[in-house]
Every structure is written in structure tokens, then in C-alpha cells.
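Exercise 7.
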Amino acid sequence: MPTHQSSETTLLKGEPRPVRVTGRGRAAVVEIGGHDISRDLAAYSLAHQAGDVPRMVIELSPASTATGVFEGLAHVVIGDPPDPGPAAAAFLAAISPAELEKAALARHDLMDGSPHELTRAMLALLREWALGQWGDPEPEERE
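Solution. The predicted structure, written as C-alpha cells, is:
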């Protein structure tokens, strides 16, 4: 296998490799080319389109939580989950402070006189906006 490159995805070139995945409850035994790589996995995914060789994407980590069974040939991709920081920073940079404050003050479902109500309303709005929810507010559970 190639050297792992942080925050990048490395596609293993060449012929598809033999892959075997055996689910065991919340864990899985994942073998590539007869080598057990289970200890190095955080996650894997399999995609298969009719007529194509399946594609397996694995995320390297000390533990595996994958389940299921698959045995056959697959193209294997090794990568890291993306860092959410830059996307979160770009999202927050696009938020108008005036619009956020106006929308938060209009959140009567969260403005009840309890401590930090404006901050709670703003955080609820930011979560909803990040998920593309621009409609009516949904009630939030209190901590």
C-alpha cells in the first residue's frame, strides 16, 4: 500500500485488488489482498454500479466500526475524512451579523428569559442554516 497522505485521498492504481469484508456486530474484518487491515480502519464504503468493478473507500484510523459482508474485487481508495474547519469558517464568513441578530431576536420559541437566550437562538439558527433549513424554526431541547 502507498504511504498514507494526511487530508488527501490516494487512489491505488492498477488492477482491482481482492477484497473481503466480514461483519461481526459493530466490528468488521476487512482484508485487502489477503491482508487484514481492520485495526487501521475508522470506516469504509463500497459503491457498485452495474457493469463496473466495485469501488471501496477506506478511512484509516486505529478502530473499525463497519458492518456487513462483501467478497470480490474492488478498486480501493485510501483517504482521511475532510477537515470541517475551513468549510465552517467559510460558512460563518458569509453570515450577515445584522441578519443573524434580527432572525435570532424573532425566535420567540427560544426567547424565554432564560440565561444566554440570544446566544442559544443564534447557535440554533446557525445549525439550521448550515443544514439548509431556512423555514419555520423547530423547537430545541434545552441542556
